[in-house]
């Protein structure tokens, strides 16, 4: 954050946006500066700063910045690239944007968000510091799909994805491609921070939230932490649905901790909606185990150690975490209400994506016809076909390419038995079936239906 703090000193409240990451080799610098007068000096200082850095750090990656901000007058932008200067009027910003799109490799940035008042070229994914003062918006969608005349604002998220890890939460990044949604792709993890959550909940106890005057006092009391949270959010228009996700919110800690997190979420946005993604716990456990092989020796040794530990926890009556969906979600549902919580089937996001995404978009109350998926046979995972063609990071879902039940049946058969009781609790809690009977099992036998993977846990004796 020190680098961004320096930018604030140089530019005050002016917008600074990371365009791309380049290997400049001390040669080419793109500078974009407003020539209306007020920002000439700060922009010049910034340009000189980058020239110095480029000379010192030859062959190092540099971040190239632009200074484009709302003005009553049409700004004149000077573009310097490879020693060639070109002046662009405010009316030519679209041309500038197209130039960047054509000359920057797609993997170097996430996309472009257009606004008549502000044009932001989005940062390379993965740098949380780029949220500094909202100057850079975090987007997963790799091209322009938004165009709005409305002002970008800072606001709390309307929807939060709370888990579960290893169930495909990364696929929620596709939401960023919906024209009615702005999505924070990297995880802010704000409600996983004890200090902030505790402070907000202490304030809830201090003020009577049934009284309007007390509500105002509460807002003032928690303003510091609310502002900190909002600074982690991308800017959005007032009518866009803003979404963030952090699987840590449902995982880790006790149910008392989860209840405190849920209260803090609702305190910041009383109308908050929550999303969870559940999947076959055996596949989820294998995905986690795969990460431990490097510490646990061979894959067989890892399976043996993991299975022994799971069996020990089961015998001790401890929650079977990889299948403990109902227990971990209950505190959140108790606070926000069942009508404001939606459980997505992570397995069906792969098997029948258009159906599963349609249900999620209905819950979000946005147009679902904007989304259409196809199965990428090479990757084995769905890719977006509409509104643009877009696939997720190829590193995602690598463990899912292994048929773990076939390859390691002697272990996974044990896991099935260990996870069965908590999976049955899930059926009742989320009302997947009214009761576990022949009608329920017939429904779950349809591989295209949501939570069909539950069939092997619930219907072996029916």
UniProtKB/TrEMBL annotation:
Q: Where is the Sulfotransferase domain?
A: 156-386
Q: List the disulfide bonds.
A: 383-391
Keywords for this protein: Disulfide bond, Glycoprotein, Membrane, Transferase, Transmembrane, Transmembrane helix
Q: What is its EC number?
A: 2.8.2.-
Q: Which residues cross the membrane?
A: 42-58
Pfam families attached here?
Answer: Sulfotransfer_1
Q: Which residues form the active site?
A: 166 (for sulfotransferase activity)
Enzyme's top EC category? transferase
Output one GO MF annotation.
Answer: [heparan sulfate]-glucosamine 3-sulfotransferase activity
Report the domain of life of the source organism: Eukaryota
Q: Which residues make up the binding site for 3'-phosphoadenylyl sulfate?
A: 287
Which protein family is it in?
A: Belongs to the sulfotransferase 1 family.
What's the protein here called? Sulfotransferase
